[in-house]
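Entry:
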Amino acid sequence: MIRVALLIAATILSPLGSAGAQQELRVGLMNAEPGVISKDNQLRGRDIDIWDAVAKDTGLRVTYVLVSSPSALLAALDEGKVDAAGWTSTKADKYLLTDTILPTAEALIVPKADTRAYRGLDDIKHLRFATLAGSDYANYLKKSGITDIREFNALPDVLKTVASGEVDAAMFSGIIAGYMEKEGNLPSLQVVRSYQPALSRPVVAAFPKAASENYNRVNASLKKLHADGIMADIKAKYGL
């Protein structure tokens, strides 16, 4: 059974009338930082900022349904518990998919003392790695012929292993790595800016096929947020 928590985090008045005339859009999001940050009974975070901006632009009254996994997010959409999956990398033809919200890819993390300009696979294939067990990053390293890999279930263990010198580098989500660096949570480590990701993929919002009106409104709004520089400001705020 999918467990969801409904949290109303944005009530944006439409330009023409009262809140009672507004249409509600229930947006499903992953309950994980930096997309959603819950503190002092308040919601903030990258995804909240994006959808609050969409709400302000469209006049929709956006509420949030938080779930624990990508599969739960799409299941909530399929079961009608949300009107849109607000952050997904699905390619399924069964949904209406918006243009790219943000791209996501792997990041290469090394000690700050390592100043080499790593760019691609040829530069990293000799390194000893730490990464998350069973992740796309672990699979990519293995398929690339890298054999010296330590896998962990928790990110702090990955980072500790690199910081201690037991391995040379870590590989995990660039979105998470950039946010951690921005927040000062990688004190002895750095995200390698010269590295060119191999696992880049677009993050989009998904709507049911029957929801073309809301899909068109939101997709047009996302394009506007990119054109106006608002999306770039959100990216910078969270280390992207």
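The domain at 106-191 is CATH 3.40.190.10 (D-Maltodextrin-Binding Protein; domain 2).
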